[in-house]
């Protein structure tokens, strides 16, 4: 009985597929389906307590009723194979379409990722350009301040010169002050100008790593030594062993307390060379 019911259901499936394929080229095949009014056979829900055997029996009755009102003959084995082949082709086509859609979505995601990467790269480049412009402006300002300081020194020298001429040349003839002026040397040489202390706000640090390579980076003079250590940890490629920083001459090993001190306080401004050494575990 179960085999007969199963064969009937398969026969119904093939009959429905054949009917769909026969009408797949109809002009109104894409129009929305309007269910018929009243009771339609096979659309009602199975009653409570139904078992697979009762459902199959109902399917047999539906098939027999359909067969009585239908002049078409049951499908032959050849027709079943053709229907199965057609169904498998449809399934394969749907699978190809799904794979192509997933491939397009993957390509689109990759494009979005590359676009975001380019935008981030442009932002980083813009920040670097702004930083370089800021440093160039600071250098121009320093040069201008240095030029003004030299000008003030020259003006002071000229005033001192005029005072000496007035002091040693008073009460004599008009040609008397000419001799002391000629004998007095004019401090025009830069070596005779009073030295001016320059304040640096940038520090160029070169770090020699364990494998012989080196890293070079510019830091603010007021930045802590911990910023240099963090830069080394992020960019070193000679292993992840613990390390400490030191200078070769004069030899000095920087402690954890030194990491909180600014570079200018540690005497690393305007430039310095640091060495990475393995930290011995006690």
TrEMBL record:
Localization (cell): Cytoplasm
One GO cellular component, as annotated: cytoplasm
UniProt keyword annotations, A-Z: Cytoplasm
GO biological process, one term: negative regulation of protein ubiquitination
Major subcellular location class: cytoplasm
Domain UBX residues, every copy: 198-276
GO MF terms, alphabetically ordered: K48-linked polyubiquitin modification-dependent protein binding
Basic and acidic residues bias spans: 69-111, 126-166
Region (Disordered) residue spans: 17-200
UniProt-listed SMART domains: UBX
Lineage: superkingdom: Eukaryota
InterPro entries assigned: Ubiquitin-like_domsf, UBX_dom
Name of this protein: UBX domain-containing protein
Species of the source: Gopherus agassizii
Lineage per the UniProt record: Eukaryota, Metazoa, Chordata, Craniata, Vertebrata
């Amino acid at each position: 009985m179960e085999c007969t019911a199963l064969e009937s259901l398969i026969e119904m499936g093939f009959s429905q597929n054949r009917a769909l394929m026969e009408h797949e080229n109809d002009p109104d095949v894409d129009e929305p389906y309007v269910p018929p009014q009243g009771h339609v056979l096979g659309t009602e829900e199975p009653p409570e307590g139904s078992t697979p055997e009762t459902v199959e029996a109902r399917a047999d009755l539906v098939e027999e009723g359909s067969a009585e009102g239908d002049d078409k003959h049951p499908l032959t084995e050849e027709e079943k194979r053709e229907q199965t082949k057609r169904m498998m082709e449809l399934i394969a086509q749907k699978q190809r379409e799904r794979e192509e859609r997933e491939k397009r979505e993957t390509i689109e995601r990759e494009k979005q990722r590359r676009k975001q990467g380019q935008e981030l790269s442009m932002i980083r480049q813009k920040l670097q350009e702004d930083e370089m412009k800021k440093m160039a402006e600071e250098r121009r300002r320093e040069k201008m301040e240095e030029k003004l300081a030299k000008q003030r020194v020259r003006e002071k020298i000229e005033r001192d010169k005029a005072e000496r001429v007035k002091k040693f040349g008073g009460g004599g003839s008009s040609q008397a002050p000419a001799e002391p002026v000629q004998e007095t040397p004019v401090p025009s040489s830069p070596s005779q100008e009073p030295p001016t202390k320059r304040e640096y706000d940038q520090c160029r640090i070169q770090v020699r790593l364990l494998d012989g390579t080196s890293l070079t980076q510019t830091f603010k003079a007021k930045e802590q030594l911990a910023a240099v250590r963090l830069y080394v940890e992020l960019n070193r490629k000679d292993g992840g062993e613990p390390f400490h920083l030191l200078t070769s001459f004069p030899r000095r090993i920087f402690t954890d307390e030194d990491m909180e001190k600014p570079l200018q306080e540690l005497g690393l401004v305007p430039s310095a060379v640091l060495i990475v050494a393995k930290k011995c575990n006690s």
